[in-house]
Amino acid sequence: QRWRKWIKSFEYYIAASGINDKKQQRAILLHLAGPEVQDIFETLEDTGNDLDTAIAKLTSYFEPQKNIPFERHNFRQTTQLQGETIEQLAIRLKHQVKFCEYGNPNDMIRDQIIEHCSSSRLRRRLLREPELTLEKTVEIGRSFEASERQASQIEADSLKTTDLGVNAIRSKAASSRYPTSIQTGRSNIVCYCCGNAGHRAKDPRCPAEGMSCNKCDKLGHFARVCRQLKPTNKPEFQNPTSKNKNEIYKQNTGSHGEIRYVYGAPHPATGKSLSDDEYVFELGATGKMPHATVQIGNFPVDLIVDSGATVNVLDNETFAKIKANSPITLSKTNLKLFPYGSSTPLSIQGSFTAQVSHKDLITNAIFIVVANQNSGSLLGHKTATDLGLFQEHENFHPIQNICNGDNLFMQTLVTKYPQVFNGIGKLKDLQLHLHFDESVPPVAQAPRRIPFHIRKAVQTKLDELETLGIIEPVKGPSPWVSPLVAVPKPNGDIRVCVDMRQANSAIIRERHPIPTIEETLQELQGATVFSKLDLRSAYHQIELHPESRPITTFATQKGLYQYTRLMFGVSSAPEVYQHIIQQILQGLPGVRNISDDIIVFGKTKDEHDQNLNNVIQRLQESGLTLNKDKCLFGVSNLTFFGHEVSASGVSPDTKKVEAIREARVPTNAAEVRSFLGLATYCSRFVPNFATVADPLRLLTRKSTPWQWNSIHQNAFDTLKNLLTGNTVMAHYDPSAPTHLRVDASPVGLGAMLTQTQHGITKPIAYASRTLSNVERRYSQTEKEALAVVWGCEKFHLYLYGTEFTIYTDHKPLEIIYNPKRKPPARIERWALRLQPYHFKIQYIPGAENPADVLSRLPLPHQPHVERSIADEYVNYIVSNSVPKAMTLEQIEKASLADPILQRIHTCITSGTRPKEPDLRPYMQVNSELCVQNGIILRGTRIVIPFDLQKPTLELAHQGHQGIVKTKQLLRQKVWWPGIDKDVDKMISQCLPCQAQGPKTNPEPLHMSTMPTEPWHTLHIDLCGPFPTGESLLVLVDACSRWPAVEILSSTTATTIINRLENIFSQFGYPEEMVSDNGPQFTSHEFKSFLHSCGIKHRLITPYWPAANATVERFNKTSGKAVKAAHAEGRNWKQELPKFLMMYRATPHISTGVSPAELFFGRRIKTKLPHIRVASQCTQ
Fold it and tell me: At the topology level of CATH, where does 1011-1145 sit?
């Protein structure tokens, strides 16, 4: 099936490419199939020379022999899966029936749906139809499922439920019970769980709900209705209805829904806690549970979202489907897995680790595969949380974040200080002054073009900020203007950001004393309860002084605006903000502001509550507000600058060294060499380094075959322990110079934080992670740029508010992250994320970069759950830059069929710069190009493939606007080489425009006066460049029309002056020289040269080459001669002197005499026969 799907995609590609030659199609087939298929193809016999034969041979090789009885058996075993619709079942059956060779496949699919659909009501409904076709079966099934969903919703609403069933963790139960007899008006219904009439089984109000059977000891029914033949032995641990602290139980929550609580219950046999044995919901339960479809690898799987499960579970049928689509190997596990409320462990086949994604979120998770054939699959609490599948109730707080009674205390604080938790505040009695470097000249940058489709959303956001008093329109001139960038949010809204990189060069950062880590940790010693407060839109709560606002000016389509509050992106904001908050909290016990958070602590709960109350009271007095959703209250531990602070004391954070300790074993000599590079960097602090590392160093020799054994493993483990020990690592010191070393490999990112303390550079922390599937498709430059952003945000706590140096072995980053550069859209979004940091990028050779090993041996199980913000931004730009009436799918399809754009695509992803002439226009702007979903972007503009360039021009010219406005419209959204010329050509050929446009009568030519003598006035210009990359320097004498020509490999002013001195040494200096406004001729160096030679320099009218027609006409003739020689395969440099001799000897049309005769007063001899006569120089 995979081969047939691939061939189908290949046929689509061939049809789109327009290639009709069968041999060429065959070559493309083998090229795209890859080297492995090519090796197989070489072994096949009678493959012919055309495409059809090649496909037939490969198909017979890849497709196994059909076993019709077996295929029909599989077809008959197909049943409707849980959560699968009738329409989805029909599609699955249609794929399977292709291999069964039934005479009437539609009837077989219809019969299979009737026999194996999961709903007996639907089956009866289908059997009532006298003439039932497959189409009618699917239509009835679709209507039936829709009515079932709607009826369930109506019935659920009629119960007037107030709480939905959620899974949570609590400290104790608050269960309630109902009377045995529940009258519901349905006395004819008998519950088989309790034996009473009036309700169905599994009703939340059933008295047997959560109760234990005295006969079989199972949950959910009474002994009088138990179906167990013999009583089972009771487990040694207490059942889920007990009232012990560590128990598993259910709690009723009204008339509908339930909350499931999972605690660390001991194992029935071993007594171990849930750290070794895991509990999950009972597999195969029939209750209605929340579902979600996630991607495991590249395969979609429907899972029950279970907040009470501590692991992820797959049944073996689901695992078999995943394994068929991606190579997954099960590993043995000692984990014991218990169904909810059961003492019997499940049969486990093994476990595996895979990448899981849901919408824009990605994480790595471990799955347990159980032996149950089709019992259902569960998504555990941690993975579901990482994928954003839980939205907790506003009154729900995890037990690890709320101490007993804190919920009530918090409600008291919210009631007591309502202003602190409402809206965006403003600090009272302060207008912040920013300090500027007056020597830096102001820069008014051009505005970034915002697509028309999102301008309304941008204006709405600006109106909102203006209403809140955060921005205001600019009145009068402004020396500083920065560009505005619109960035998408996950909810579909947009965020407006200002690129302040150039403005920051004029802002002087303030230096306020920062307490050392030792001082702060000393204050936290003995504390047992902690809270972390987050100020809402922190910077926006500090008002800017009117004199400091102009530097924040930014341009929009509606004019200029400036910020009235401190804004994200101002380089001095972190230090200023920390100092201001520190002054506000001064004098309060048990509080520290750390970076952009406020930490409140206390030795007892009462002391912590008192300190927290004082802090919130001080914030209200100051006019500041908090973001309640991002605050943590009453936690028992927190991480602070690489230390774990808790009631037990202060301990180092193991995450700082996890990237080294958990690094995988190298698989080749290159990875060993990279690891030794990091070890050598720290070798001065490692005792006996040479001896310990010697076994690994031997593996890097070319003469040593690769063989990893226990000696190498011991050396590897020893070095890892030494590199993460106290002799190598150092504690972070805010006053010491800080360095961030980053690197990116094809598979991962690495970062290493170091500091120079007392003249010695030591590591502070290591970090690494693998690249996602999308990130691995980035170009190498984009991967290296991503490593910078990830490293800064990974070590945000250490780097925020201080100056540091980033070391990278990718030199283009020095230019790309320069504030004056306009990077591609994806890197532009990353540059905005780097605005809070103050750093400089410095290049170092790869051999000197110790972070190299961290990217080559990344941690395989690091969660990667952050949204791909850069890709969202690029997608946002692409979707809003498409010309009207043209879709992204059209552009993507045409781009795939465009050979030039496909070569550009390869160059971008590989980082190469070819020199082919047809790619040269793209390579001149290669730093602005990026790829997104098969579409190439130049900055924020789409590069249009050749086949769509004419339709794009026609779309832009609808309404018959003029040349200037048509170009302005196109430049906002699209680009391709020569777009301006194409617009000029199209409009010049547009008959309605020409018919209605104004008539332009050319002005009569004003003939220049002929000089009285040769070499008096010279016309100078450049001709070329030619295919070899060289150009010609051309001078033409206005009197005699004598041409002087020099070949140039460089067209700089210095080169031109050197060649002119050579020409003037032969013929002397002229009186006057005429040139166009090229940069070489208008440079100060060229003007100074002519002035020193006493030559008058006359520039022609800009953009009017006819004023220099004397040399322009010669350029046309000489250029034709050079191209003709090149076309004939001759050396044009050798042919040029021959052309010049013939030109100088030929009478000129304007004088009637040859240039040589006027210049020298005689005719020159050529290869043509002639009779010498007296020359007439006076003519």
Answer: Nucleotidyltransferase; domain 5 (3.30.420)
Strand intervals (E) in 62-215:
none
- Per-residue pLDDT tens for 169-195? 333 333 333 333 333 344 456 787 887
Query: Is 279 buried (19+), middle (13-18) or exposed (0-12) by CB count in 10 A?
Result: buried
Identify the CATH homologous superfamily for domain 652-726. Answer: Reverse transcriptase/Diguanylate cyclase domain (3.30.70.270)
- Cα(981)–Cα(967) distance, rounded to whole angstroms? 10
Q: CA-CA distance, 1165 to 1175, in Å (whole number)?
A: 13
**How far apart (Å, rounded) are the C-alpha atoms in residues 425 and 1092?**
68
Q: Identify the burial level of 1118 via C-beta atoms within 10 angstroms of its C-beta, where 0-12 means exposed, 13-18 middle and 19 or more buried.
A: buried
> What pLDDT, on the 0 to 100 scale, is given for residue 1176?
45
Two tokens, residue 386: 């990482």
3-state helix, strand, coil in the chain (%, to 5): 40, 20, 45
Q: How far apart are CA 1136 and CA 627, in angstroms?
A: 77
pLDDT, residue 341, reads 55
Calculate the dihedral angle through the C-alpha atoms of 572, 573, 574, 578, rounding to the nearest 10 degrees.
110
pLDDT at 1043 over 90: yes
Q: Can the peptide bond before residue 1025 be classed as cis, meaning omega within 30 degrees of 0? A: yes
Q: Which two tokens stand for residue 173?
A: 């139960």
Helices of type H across 585-652: 605-622
Residue that has been written with the tokens 């690769």 in this structure: 706
Q: pLDDT tens digit string along 509-568?
A: 777 766 656 566 667 777 888 888 888 888 888 999 998 999 999 988 778 999 999 988
Compute the mean pLDDT over every residue in the chain, rounded to the nearest whole number. Answer: 76
Can you tell me the distance from the alpha carbon of 1164 to that of 1155, in angstroms, rounded to the nearest whole number? 10
- Looking at 3.40.630.30, 3.30.420.40, 3.10.10.10, 3.40.50.720, the CATH number of the domain 424-647 comes to 3.10.10.10
pLDDT band (50, 70, 90) for residue 1056 = very high
Measured distance CA(1146)–CA(1158) in Å, rounded: 11
Rounded Cα–Cα distance for residues 434 and 480 (Å):
14
Alpha helices in 159-255 (DSSP H): none
- Which of helix, strand or coil describes residue 618? helix
Contact 328, 354 (CB under 8 A): yes
Token pair of 1056 as six digits: 């031109």
Q: Count other C-beta atoms under 10 Å from residue 503's C-beta.
A: 26
| Domain topology for 729-861 | Ubiquitin-like (UB roll) (3.10.20)
- CATH code given to domain 893-994: 1.10.340.70
Q: Answer whether 248's CB lies under 8 Å from 279's CB.
A: yes
| DSSP track, 512-560 | -----HHHHHHHHTT--EEEEE-BTTGGGGSBBPGGGSGGG-EEETTEE
Q: Exposure of 961 by Cβ count < 10 A (0-12 exposed, 13-18 middle, 19+ buried)?
A: middle
Yes or no: say if 967 and 953 are a contact pair by the CB < 8 Å rule. Answer: no
Which neighbouring-strand residues pair with 331?
Answer: 351
Q: Which of 1061, 1058, 1067 is nearest to 1037 (CA)?
A: 1067
- Tell which residue, 326, 325, 330, has the closest CA to residue 369: 330
Per-residue pLDDT, 652: 56
Q: CB under 8 Å to 1160, separation ≥6 — which residues? A: none
Count other Cβ atoms within 10 Å, centred on residue 256. 17
The token pair that represents 982 in the structure block: 């194409």
Give the neighbor-by-neighbor strand order of the sheet with 935-938: 929-932, 935-938, 941-943, 974-975
For 116, residues 6+ apart whose C-beta sits below 8 A from its C-beta are 78, 79, 80
- Asked if CATH classification 2.40.70.10 holds for the domain at 291-387, the reply, yes or no, is yes
Q: Do residues 554 and 567 touch, judged by C-beta distance below 8 A?
A: no
- CA dist., res. 766 & res. 1052, Å (int): 49
pLDDT digits (tens, 9 = 90+) for 930-957: 888 788 888 878 899 988 888 888 877 7
- CB-CB contact of 293 with 387 (8 Å): no
Residue 1010, amino acid: M
